[in-house]
Write a structure and sequence with these properties.
The complex is a heterodimer of chains A (59) and B (230).
Chain A (H helix, E strand, L loop, with lengths): L2 H16 L3 H32 L6
Helix pairs in contact in A: 1-2
Chain B lengths: L2 E5 L8 H9 L5 E5 L8 H9 L3 E7 L7 H10 L2 H6 L9 E8 L16 H4 L1 H9 L3 E2 L3 E4 L6 H16 L6 H15 L8 H33 L1
Parallel strand pairs in B: 1-2, 1-3, 3-4, 4-5, 4-6
Helix pairs in contact in B: 8-9
Classes of the chains: A mainly alpha (59), B alpha/beta (230).
Amino acid sequence: MDDTGLWLSKQIETLSDKQKAYENRAFLVAMNKVVNEQNKRLEQLKGEVDGRLWNHEQW
Amino acid sequence: MKTLVVVSHPEINNSQTQQFLLQGAKLQDVTWHHVEELEEIDVEKEQALLMANDRIIFQFPLYWYAAPAGLKNWEDKVLTRNFVYGDGDDNLGDKEFGIVVSTGMPLKEFQRGGSENITIDEIMAPYFAIADRAKMKILPTFTIAQFQYLNDQEQMQLLIDYQRFLTQEYPDTLAHRQEWFEQEFADRFKNFDETTCTECETILNTFIQQKEDIDQLKSTISLIKQGEDE
């Protein structure tokens, strides 16, 4: 997985652990789930680009 | 976008679920409107309130496969035929309509073969019929099953999912989720503990960068696909 995505997820996790207000904590935990979704999507899309560029039928 | 939450619960102060949702609904551009608290139903005022909002939510606990009597009473008075469709004006046309329903039964029972043997969508048919008649766009129903059994993590997720249901653009895609969190993070980070603006701005910018990277990759793929078609 991309380092940036992992870094971002870690930053948000650290920030959420520091929050005293319930709603802020809830918000950051939920936002981190979207970051994980982004990371997964990025990995899939990069894989798709590689796969399509290496499509032998197009050589 | 403005959202109106029409809430019906005869004992709202004793409802943990509704009190929890009330905290979640304290958002800009969201109006919490509890029908049982109205001393009298002023039809014109209620209709004006509906017209002033873009997303209308009916929120209630499931009582015998329907909303509590308070909501039915409100509907029968406020949703007059002329207002909804009779006078030729689609007063509610193009607005969005959604339901937030809570139930004490597990969600898995609301399906054919489950102990309830009926789906939530089937139960909500009369509300969807009204929404269709009014030419409103129907959102997928937000069901809260067995709130009292949710653990802390699940409750936290519920709070934010509920806030997104009230204010996030429809449909619930990754693109719309990203937009919502981007906007909300920008609005909320000043209230965060133990952080600096610079730190938060870096987080926000990285989040936006990830979103843009996704878009960039998608457009690359669509270019490759075009090439494959030729």
